[in-house]
Design goal:
Layout: E1 2-7, H1 15-18, E2 27-28, E3 31-32, H2 33-43, E4 48-53, H3 57-65, H4 67-71, E5 73-76, E6 83-86, E7 94-99, H5 106-111, H6 114-117, E8 122-126, E9 129-131, H7 135-145, E10 149-154, E11 162-165, E12 171-175, E13 185-186, E14 190-192, H8 207-217, E15 221-226, E16 230-232, H9 236-247
Parallel strand pairs: 1-4, 1-8, 4-7, 10-15
Antiparallel strand pairs: 2-3, 5-6, 8-14, 9-16, 10-13, 10-14, 11-12
Amino acid sequence: MRVVILAGGLGTRLAEETEVTPKPMVEIGDRPILWHIMKHYSYYGVKEFFVALGYKGDFIKRYFLDYSRLTGNVTVNLGSGQVDMQQLEREDWVVHLKNTGNDTHTGGRVRRLQSCLDDSTFMVTYGDGVANIDLRALLEFHRSHGRIATVTAVRPPARFGGLAFGNDSMVTAFTEKPQIGEGWINGGFLVFEPGVFEYLDGDQSSLESDALEHLATDNQLAAYQHAGFWQCMDTLRDKALLESLWQSGDAPWKIWE
């Protein structure tokens, strides 16, 4: 199984961070959110990644080129020039870093990878969202429905907390911001058959409006409903939330050891 991670957008709603680095490289717990996403897939045995690059794609290339050096210990003998590297961290991943254009839309990025993907089922997700989705169950659901595509449907966290009050109009409690009735949305973690490429035409194709919407019209889009944790990183507030969860030692998306 192969997965495409869309990592080429501008990330304008997180401009405080993305003016310097591409959004998938914004760090949670000293690791890029892209790494967190890949660790999730790897836990379920998905080890081959196609990272669709665009905006500041060179940053992502450098990260993987220097992955072991950045995560291990290094001793440099300045006299002899000898470099000794210890405790290198390695992952059994194959990572294809593919330039898909700075101005290419989401569907166009997937389409540019057609020659690598059009012979079997593959997965796609966005490079800015984490979840505790059971990917085996997702894949089984997709195969059991026999459609071209499956989208993981999630309920986004409510933007605001709530108030509880009694008959006398006195506030009795503040409620947290649960994932409740704001409707189901596309949470990424998609599964596709090669037939999806018939719905994509050129770099300006949108995965959402050109592919998913038309697949739904053709009764070719199934929805795997995920009621567990899901969180995208659109704003600094989202980043702060994910960071606080990670630092607490109880990040819901950390399903690996």
